[in-house]
Specification:
Radius of gyration: 18 Å
Shape: globular
Number of helices: 7
Strand content: 25-35%
Number of strands: 11
Length: 265
């Protein structure tokens, strides 16, 4: 799918979404989805999520098994047990160096290394990198679709996707494997539970993948992340490749419930 076509799809979703909430959440917001759950369900507890998918989405569920090994279609919906998050595959060569999307070899990106070292030293932590990217992107808006890292570094503008791409690039500048992840963020604002289409980075610390979300630092509520796919193809056709993976655009609605006691670990 081209950038133009993908932009049209996102624009349609945004037109139907809660624009007041979009303004409040800024770059964190992509589009809100219909969600239902018991009012007292804790977001950090063992949870079953049932995702109703748009036609064609059921053919893409394999990408969710990177995190949820038991992910399966049951009675027409994708069922995920959030307490059973898998550790994820070891990082590949494509998650360590330069690519078309995460173009860490471009001068606009390589120049950021000195900026980061000035602030955090030669061995920045994941938190250091997350804070840097949050501050570097000064124009936080929904005006971009999915820019590569050098464009983000230059324009200093974007939403959650641009924050994720630049954060992935910042990690690779310091030898840390990284990837861009598409999925959902579950968040409770007061008595309102929301499921938001979202993108973030995951950075490998040598033992496991860590969630790193530069777009959500200012969100005044705890989040629960529900990853659906990692952008494994970062080449020139990355947007078309992403369309073959399970993304928030494939999700129609979500039902959450407490996981049965015998299913927890």
């Amino acid at each position: 799918m081209s950038h133009v076509a993908r932009g049209v799809v996102l624009a349609v979703m945004l037109a139907a979404a809660d624009r007041a909430m979009a303004d409040e959440l800024g770059p964190f917001f992509l589009a809100s989805l219909q969600i239902s759950a018991p009012p007292d369900l804790p977001l950090d507890g063992p949870t079953v999520a049932r995702l109703s998918l748009h036609p064609g989405g059921e053919a893409k569920v394999a990408s969710a098994r990177e995190w949820f090994r038991d992910a399966a279609m049951k009675e027409g919906a994708l069922e995920l047990r959030l307490e059973r998050a898998a550790p994820g595959a070891a990082p590949g060569a494509g998650q360590r160096g330069a690519s078309f999307l995460v173009d860490v070899d471009e001068p606009a990106v390589t120049a950021l290394r000195d900026e980061i070292v000035k602030r955090s030293g030669s061995k920045p932590t994941v938190k250091d990198l997350t804070l840097f990217v949050n501050g570097w992107i000064t124009k936080k808006n929904l005006g971009r679709i999915l820019d590569n890292a050098s464009t983000v570094a230059t324009r200093r503008e974007g939403d959650c996707t641009e924050h994720a791409v630049l954060l992935a690039a910042a990690a690779r500048l310091f030898g840390m494997p990284s990837r861009v992840v598409l999925g959902l963020a579950l968040v409770r604002f007061g008595d309102r539970l929301m499921a938001l289409g979202h993108a973030w980075a995951e950075i490998h610390d040598g033992g496991r993948w860590q969630i790193a979300d530069a777009a959500a630092l200012n969100v005044p509520a705890p989040l629960r992340y529900l990853p659906l796919a990692a952008l494994t193809d970062e080449g020139p056709g990355f947007d078309g490749a992403a369309w073959q993976l399970l993304t928030p655009l494939d999700v129609k609605s979500i039902v959450l419930s407490a996981a049965p006691r015998e299913a927890t670990r």
